[in-house]
Amino acid sequence: MSDQTRGVIFVVIVIAVTFIWMHYFQPPLPPPQKSGTVAGQTTPGQAPGAGSGQSNSTQSAMQGAMQMTAGGAPAMAAKIPVAQATAETNIVVESNLYRVELSNHGAVARSWELKKYFDDQKPPRPLDLVNPDVAQELGWPLSLMFSDPQLEAQANSALYEVTPSSEDLTAPAEITFHYSDGHLDVTKKLNFTQDYQMSIEVTASLDGRPLAPAIAWRGGFGDKAVRNASQLVTVFYKQADSLSLLQYKKLGVSGNQVQPFEQPGSMQFTGVMDQFFAAAFIPDGTDLGLWHWTQWHHFTADNQPATSPEAEIAVGATAPGPVKARIFVGPKDLGLLIKVQPSLEQLVNFGWTGVIAKPLLFALQWLHRYIPNWGWAIVALTLVINFAVFPLKMKSWRSMQDMQKIAPEMKQIQDKYKKYSMTDPRKKGMQDEMAELYQRHGINPMAQLGGCVPMLIQMPIWWALWRVLTGAIELRHAPFVFWIRDLSVRDPYYILPVAMAITMYLMTKMTPQSAAIDPSQQKMMRLMPLMFAAIFFSYASGLNLYMFTSNLVGVGQQYYLNRTRPLPTNSPFKNKKKKLQ
Q1: Phi and psi (nearest 5°) for 509?
Q2: Cα–Cα distance, 375 to 507 (Å, whole number)
Q3: Residues 58/63/67/70 CA torsion (nearest 10 deg)
Q4: Cβ within 8 Å of residue 576, ≥6 positions away
Q5: For residue 40, which of 30, 32, 49 has the smallest C-alpha distance?
Q6: Cis bond before residue 123 (omega within 30° of 0)
Q7: Residue of 260, 336, 301 lying closest to 53 (CA atoms)
Q8: CB 226 within 8 Å of CB 161
Q9: What is the pLDDT of residues 171-192, one digit of tens each?
Q10: Are 507 and 554 in contact (CB under 8 A)?
């Protein structure tokens, strides 16, 4: 037989033997899986197929709680006592700073009030960082997250037994929630201190095998009265001493924000915050991973339906076992955040101006000890800053006056050489004559730029104060006078921005321009007050108050300079003023 024929016969024999073997010697089927684990299920908050953030050992350990042992024998279910409450109970924990209402229905937080801060209702009430309308739909803070959605729903809807049984507690207080149906066993231990910190420990197991739970902050966060609050809520996390901030558009899996995304690596701390308040999770003996996403909900505001995205996070174990964390829930007060270990001071975001902004904030706080009104404290700080830079302004003014003295001669030299192009060698003669003119009158040519020095020095201060006056929680709901009832929001009648523009225009008119500035640049500088006013309409009243006070002081300083050393009679600036008159 040929080789081809022998090959065909061999294939036929192999197929026949395989079918006969499978028919008479079929291997026994493995025992069925228990309900609860779905094949290919991801870890808490992990996108399907995005397993790089979770180790293979962690995934296999979590699935092992639901599957057979490695030896092939079915896992023996441990005998776990049943622990369930018969009715829903609310527990209130209070200190001088907060009032937290907990429920044994899911062992979650239903309310988190800060006693020293109030909302915008009339009459005002203590600010509640939990939005019950949103949480009813999306879930509550301190709820849990599991890889199995059935286990997650069961843990978050169960009635937990509570120890102690008292419904009203005063911090420091320790509360334990425990639930078990004989298979799923969950314990939450909460320890409240008298300040804004607490600790939490969560353990969960299924048939005696540990799970990897995650503690979620659902239902949004912060002051719901803030305009566009959902866009102001930010997820933050710190890794390798670098703080990252994520707005809600960057949360979740790319292209599908609703799908949770696991942020790779362990966190130094993480959480959510808005403009003035934060909820930060800090590791307390176990590594913490982060999952984040957004959820949309429908709610009624002013009897109008609306849709708003909410930032959601879950902080959990990176391996099966208990989750231990400290939680700071409170104001973004720089003095308080510095005392937390590790320090949370970076949550007060000063950006690159932090070197200047922090001293300015501390100076403002020091002034407030003696000036009870924050608005007048801002005025006092403005006076200090302006009088501190006044010597530089005076020096610049004197240099500008010297330039005005030689302005007519400069004009003659410029007219003499204006017919030559910049590439013409004869143009160099103008530079030589200008240098000789400066030397003859003992003037530094850099004095042409002297008038810009005070503004250049004040620009970083302006940026730093913008950070301070728009982010300092001390100015939240801080009144000034009459119509200004909150220095952290814009002027409701735009009086301060308009007054700022007027005083800026007066200061521009009173300040002579250097001879080196051409007419088109001078026109642009005259339009600056209008541009500033348009920008500052939406800024906080505290920042507008600073700008108005600074301009008002500048007008007075310029008047003093003009009177003590007037411009020479042949000054083009002075002649122009006469023509206008």
Answers
A1: -65, -35
A2: 23
A3: -20
A4: none
A5: 49
A6: yes
A7: 260
A8: no
A9: 999 999 999 999 999 999 999 9
A10: yes
Give the mean model confidence (pLDDT) for residues 426-452.
72
The residues with which 235 forms a beta bridge, in sequence order, are 246, 272
Q: Where are the domains of the chain?
A: 90-349, 357-406+443-580
CB of 221 within 8 A of CB of 229? no
Instruction: Quote the tokens at residue 156.
Output: 């978050």
Q: Rounded mean pLDDT of the chain?
A: 80
- Pairing mode, if any, of strands 168-170 and 90-94? parallel
Find residue 315's DSSP bridge partners: 215, 290
Distance of CA 385 to the CA centre of its chain: 29
- Residue 73 and residue 473: Cα distance in Å, rounded? 60
Identify the CA nearest to 512 among candidates 363, 350, 402.
402
Could you confirm whether domain 90-349 is CATH 3.40.640.10?
A: no
Contact 188, 160 (CB under 8 A): yes
Helix 572-580 crosses helix 407-417 at what angle (to 10 degrees)? 100
Helix, strand, coil % (nearest 5) of the chain?
A: 40, 25, 35
HSE-up (13 A, CA, CB side) for residue 282: 16
What pLDDT digit, counting tens, does each position of 114-159 carry? 999 999 888 899 999 998 888 988 899 999 999 999 999 999 999 9
